[in-house]
Design a protein that fits this description.
The protein is an alpha+beta fold and 144 residues long. It has one domain: Alpha-Beta Complex (Nucleoside Triphosphate Pyrophosphohydrolase), CATH 3.90.79.10. It contains three helices and ten strands; from the N terminus they run βββββαβββββαα. The strands form two sheets. Strands 1, 2, 3, 4, 5, 7, 8 and 10 form an eight-stranded mixed β-sheet that branches. It has a two-stranded antiparallel ribbon with strand order 6-9. The longest helix has 13 residues. The mean pLDDT is 92.
Length: 144
C-alpha cells in the first residue's frame, strides 16, 4: 500500500520546484469549520491536478472554483505530500495551501463535486475516507 509523507513548510521544509508539483489543494477554514466537497471518493478538500502550463496558484484558483464554487485570497503554501510509490508518483508532490479568507459563490454540481459544505472540522474527519492523514494536518488549525 502506498504511504504518504507530510512535510510542513513552517517546519523549515522548502517548497518543491514547480516541475515536481503535480496537484494542489486548499484547506480553507473559518474558525473550527472547513470548506469541503463531496465527490465519488467521499468528502475531501477542493483541489486537483495542474493542467498544461498552469502555475500551482492558477491551478488552485481553477480547481477551487470548479469543485467548490468558491474564491479565496491570502493563501499560503502550508505543506506538501510525498509518496513512497516511485512508479505512480516518481518525483511528484501534492502541494497544500491554506487560507482563512474564502467566499462561497454559486455552486454547480459536476462529476468532480456533487456537494459542497462548510462543516466542522471534526465532522469532516468523520466523513473523510482518503489515505492522507488529515487528522495530523488539521490538528495544526484547531484542537481535535
Amino acid at each position: 500500500m502506498t504511504k504518504f509523507f507530510i512535510k510542513y513548510i513552517d517546519d523549515g521544509n522548502v517548497i518543491p520546484e514547480k516541475e515536481s508539483i503535480s496537484s494542489v489543494f486548499l484547506i480553507a477554514t473559518e474558525g473550527s469549520k472547513i470548506l469541503a466537497i463531496h465527490n465519488d471518493r467521499g468528502w475531501e478538500i477542493p483541489g486537483g491536478h495542474i493542467e498544461g502550463e498552469e502555475t500551482p496558484e492558477e491551478a488552485l484558483v481553477r480547481e477551487v472554483e470548479e469543485e467548490a464554487g468558491a474564491s479565496f485570497s491570502h493563501e499560503r503554501p502550508f505543506a506538501f505530500i510525498e509518496s513512497d510509490d516511485q512508479d505512480a508518483y516518481k518525483d511528484k508532490v501534492m502541494l497544500i495551501y491554506e487560507t482563512k479568507n474564502f467566499e462561497l459563490g454559486t455552486f454547480t454540481p459536476s462529476e468532480d463535486a456533487f456537494g459542497r459544505e462548510v462543516i466542522e472540522i471534526e465532522e469532516f474527519l468523520k466523513r473523510y475516507k482518503g489515505r492522507i492523514d488529515f487528522v495530523h494536518i488539521l490538528s495544526r488549525f484547531v484542537t481535535i
